[in-house]
Design brief:
This protein is an alpha/beta fold. The protein has one domain: 3-Layer(aba) Sandwich (Rossmann fold), CATH 3.40.50. About 55% of the residues lie in helices and about 10% in strands. It is built from 7 helices and 5 strands; from the N terminus they run H-E-H-E-H-H-E-H-E-H-E-H. A 5-stranded parallel sheet has the order 2-1-3-4-5, sandwiched between helices. Helix 4 runs parallel beside helix 5. The longest helix has about 40 residues.
Length: about 200
């Protein structure tokens, strides 16, 4: 086995996936940046959720907003719904694992807030329930998916934003999701700080 060639193929596949996504994702990413920024300016907050690698992406996004991305600025209101083990285990034990994010959305979310819902397959049951809860509270939903969008793609409303990576391989979708998250962070900063 030629490991160097195998590694090189991962790089090439990742680059090609991102290039394939540029045209399809650039307009909805720009719309997502505007939605997120408007919520923050109007006193709203962003709740982010996902499972596994997508949980890490939710936490990464919240950390970039509470801390900073590339420029110094004020703290921005973002919460990763994946981090409180007491809430996660209590809800999973007392209700259902499918409710671990939805109950937090109902408890913390308000009209004008945004749910950043991340699922590479578009079929994560607990993310689907979180979206339903966000809709109940008149929150905007920005969904990061892949593999055609799955059930999440079918349940989004007209004023929601779907960022669906045109790929089927989980690793490539997750790599592109990270780039999307960095685009969102950069765009928010650009609008808030007036950067050209």
């Amino acid at each position: 086995m030629d490991l160097i060639a195998r590694v090189a193929q991962h790089f090439e596949d990742s680059v090609q996936t991102k290039l394939n996504a540029v045209e399809a994702l650039s307009p909805p990413i720009a719309a997502a940046i505007e939605t997120l920024t408007a919520s923050l300016i109007n006193g709203g907050k962003i709740l982010a959720c996902g499972n596994g690698g997508s949980a890490a992406d939710a936490q990464h996004f919240a950390a970039e907003l509470i801390g900073r991305f590339e420029a110094e600025r004020q703290e921005l209101a973002a919460i990763a719904l994946t981090t409180d083990t007491s809430i996660l285990t209590a809800v999973a034990n007392d209700y259902s694992f499918n409710q671990i994010f939805a109950r937090q959305v109902r408890g913390l979310g308000h009209a004008g807030d945004v749910l950043l819902a991340i699922s590479t397959s578009g079929n994560s049951a607990n993310v689907i329930e979180a979206i339903k809860a966000a809709h109940e509270h008149d929150m905007h939903v920005i969904a990061l998916t892949g593999k055609g969008g799955g059930q999440i793609g079918e349940m989004l409303r007209d004023d929601d934003i779907h960022l669906c990576v045109p790929a089927d391989r989980t690793a490539r979708i997750q790599e592109t999701h990270l780039l999307v998250i960095h685009c969102l962070c950069d765009g928010i900063d650009a609008l808030l700080l007036g950067v050209e």
